[in-house]
Write a structure and sequence with these properties.
The complex is a heterodimer of chains A (about 260) and B (about 260). Chain A is of the alpha/beta class and about 260 residues long. Chain A has a single domain, classed as 3 Solenoid (UDP N-Acetylglucosamine Acyltransferase, domain 1), CATH 2.160.10. Chain A contains five helices and 19 strands. In chain A, the strands form five sheets. Chain A has a six-stranded mixed beta sheet with strand order 5-8-13-16-18-19, with no helix packed on it. Chain A has a five-stranded parallel beta sheet with strand order 4-7-12-15-17, with helices on one face. The longest helix of chain A has about 40 residues. Chain B folds into two domains: about 140 residues, no CATH class; about 110 residues, Hexapeptide repeat proteins (UDP N-Acetylglucosamine Acyltransferase, domain 1), CATH 2.160.10.10. Helix content of chain B is about 40%, strand content about 20%. Chain B contains seven helices and 17 strands. The chains are: A alpha/beta (about 260), B alpha/beta (about 260).
Chain lengths: ~260, ~260
């Protein structure tokens, strides 16, 4: 089943394979964060220089303007810094995808192969932008930046502070993920690397503190219970609760009318 | 991959509130003295700014402007290193007064082990906060682990985890998934339990798992995602553990055969 670096996943039961992590070893590519930081700070200085230069030279009549616009300035700095870095990293990602097109194939690859190399590049390019989006108290900035960087997120989605991968995740409309959930699309071992798409269909829910392994498919209306986890490649049935660690037990969702009957 | 930065990824530092209130002055002095070198550095930068405007006629201002991001980075790392050096002197004095030791102690302010644990954690609070507040990749391993006396081997994935900074030993090439907690001291109702955690070479810990005091994970063992290892539990070599509490599920060699196909 091995073809070079890759082993196929179709037809395999991945129930027994343990779920690890989507983080990677620290690398020199992490210096991209410093490049993005310097670019963001210089952009801020160059765009705002003329305003502050004018006010400090004509301090006497215009100090009132400085005081009045200071809160707006601070908010403007934060927005500008975050969006400049997000746009910068999105552009680098686009250029990278044109030079070496990312197939996004599903399978088990070796760590020495090309697929893992590009995963490392994508990880470090998007790291700082997403870190800022989560660190800054601006509403809905999460969604905007994740969409810019390549994940597909629908409308009316509730993403509480969850640990989420960015590539190969599709979330449709009206999905709710709860506090502190982990949604993965990659799993790293010492010599292997699994890459699979995770799809959350409409109206599905993942409970609090749950773990969604790479490759899970939540059908419409499926619910994953709190503190539960899925195995790699699991498919959760629509209109059922799934409980367990891994979530093997399922209970159909009944409406109040059915109970009365 | 993308961690919620609202969950501060600092070390796990338990500080009793009464002890914190008694010794708050020491904490404020710690912050004060760690800011002093930074203020001197910024004063020197301000002089450099004025000198470059005066000596170079037209473009004098651009040199300090372009070096401003570098100034910010150096100021941040200077702050971190001075706070770590103050932390180390304070810890040295506390350890001379009362050496940390393993065991089960009562949760009582007048008990020396409990009291000095809170004081040691108060000394570590400010540097730990500073390190967790930025994503820069410089000196990551030394600042997070070695500066806090956590023994860790070469190569490994250990980002985005919660760790208590005492009595932990991690081997070479260990993968620790994000959102895990390695707790070597816990408070169980009215007792304080302190016991060493040992994680041997080549082992894997999945995401969002918790490891309690006294656990030893032997070589090549895997702990799957979302599992809990109870206090004083030891694993076997080359084995896979899963569940809450963690139970042996299989052998690592079987899983590697499945991954190869």
């Amino acid at each position: 089943m091995e073809s070079g670096n890759k082993t196929e996943i179709s037809g395999k039961t991945m129930e027994k394979i343990p779920v690890t992590t989507s983080n990677i070893y620290s690398d020199r590519k992490s210096l991209l964060i410093v490049v993005q930081f310097t670019f963001g700070v210089l952009f801020l200085i160059i765009t705002n220089y003329w305003y502050f230069n004018f006010i400090f030279k004509n301090w006497d009549p215009f100090w009132i303007l400085f005081v009045i616009f200071l809160p707006l300035n601070i908010f403007g700095f934060i927005y500008e810094f975050v969006f400049v870095i997000a746009v910068f990293s999105a552009l680098i990602l686009k250029i990278l995808k044109k030079i070496h097109p990312i197939n996004g194939e599903e399978g088990i690859f070796s760590i020495d192969g090309e697929e893992f190399k590009f995963y490392k590049y994508r990880y470090w390019i998007s790291y700082f932008a997403v870190w800022l989006a989560r660190a800054v108290p601006l509403p809905w900035i999460d969604f905007v930046i994740m969409k810019m960087l390549g994940s597909k997120i629908g409308k009316k989605v509730c993403l509480y502070d969850s640990w989420m991968d960015i590539e190969l995740i599709e979330i449709e409309d009206n999905v709710m993920t709860s506090v502190n959930t982990v949604i993965m699309s990659h799993a790293v071992f010492q010599d292997k690397f699994i890459q699979m798409k995770t799809i959350l269909k409409k109206n599905s829910i993942t409970g609090g503190l749950s773990i969604v392994a790479p490759g899970t498919f939540l059908e419409e209306g499926a619910i994953l219970g709190a503190c539960c986890s899925t195995f790699i490649g699991q498919r959760l049935e629509s209109n059922h609760y799934h409980i367990g660690n891994p979530a093997l037990k399922k209970i159909p969702i009944t409406k109040p009318k059915d109970k009365k009957k | 991959m993308s961690s919620p930065t609202s969950t501060k990824l600092m070390h796990v530092l338990y500080i009793n509130p009464k002890i914190r209130r008694k010794h708050i002055l020491g904490y404020i002095i710690h912050i004060w003295f760690s800011l002093v070198p930074v203020i001197f550095m910024e004063a020197g930068y301000y002089n450099f700014w004025n000198w470059s405007i005066q000596t170079i006629p037209n473009f004098g201002i651009w040199i300090p402007v372009l070096l401003f991001p570098v100034n910010l980075l150096i100021a941040y790392y200077l702050l971190v290193f001075t706070s770590i050096s103050i932390m180390k002197t304070w810890l040295f004095l506390l350890i001379i007064r009362h050496k940390p030791r393993e065991g089960i102690f009562p949760k009582d302010i007048h008990n020396k082990d409990f009291k000095f644990l809170s004081l040691r954690n108060l000394a570590r609070l400010f540097p730990s906060y500073l390190i967790a507040s930025t994503p820069f990749p410089f000196f990551r391993k030394t600042l997070f682990f070695s500066a806090f006396n956590i023994k860790i081997g070469k190569k490994g994935i250990n980002r985005d985890i919660w760790v208590t900074p005492e009595f932990i030993e991690i081997g070479d090439n260990v993968i620790i998934g994000h959102a895990t907690s390695l707790l070597s001291n816990i408070i169980d109702q009215d007792k304080l339990i302190i016991k060493k955690i040992i994680i041997a070479d080549n082992s894997i810990i999945g995401t969002k798992s918790t490891i309690l005091p006294g656990v030893t994970l032997k070589k090549n063992s895997i702990l799957s995602a979302g599992s809990y290892m109870l206090p004083f539990q030891t694993s076997e070599e080359d084995s896979v553990y899963y569940g809450n509490p963690a139970e042996k599920v299989g052998k690592r060699s079987d899983i590697e055969k499945e991954l190869k196909g």
